[in-house]
Amino acid sequence: xxxxxxxxxxxxxxxxxxxxxxxxxxxxxxxxxxxxxxxxxxxxxxxxxxxxxxxxxxxxxxxxxxxxxxxxxxxxxxxxxxxxxxxxxxxxxxxxxxxxxxxxxxxxxxxxxxxxxxxxxxxxxxxxxxxxxxxxxxxxxxxxxxxxxxxxxxxxxxxxxxxxxxxxxxxxx
Length: 173
Description:
This protein is mainly beta and 173 residues long. It contains 1 helix and 8 strands; from the N terminus they run E-E-E-E-E-E-E-H-E. 6% of the residues lie in helices and 29% in strands.
């Protein structure tokens, strides 16, 4: 079976524009290959992220990791972290497997777990892109619970996102 297919577009360029702000990482270099710690078969560890410059009125954050290059019509959600308090502007390496600040919680990723799932593209497939996005949210709560699908979280974000900070890594076996 061949996995040959066109490269998916940047999914965030397809959404209504919102202001951007800055996200950096000690573990992810924008546009560069992810380290083994962020690979499912490696460390399966969520990366360190820090952000600044969120729009005025930000009341909480949602952090996601999305792979648009998965061989599915809907990509693959690796991480959905919701309702981070507005005074939180960084996550340590491995934060997804520790107690979360305030009322923050994980929704189920496409691997079926509530937490972070590292890069896991099919063997021999094209390089995959992993978009780590910090969404500045206009309300203290996104209004979903931990059983919400990534699609439902994204739908709610469409109406409550004030800004986005994006960094992406890549991975290929």
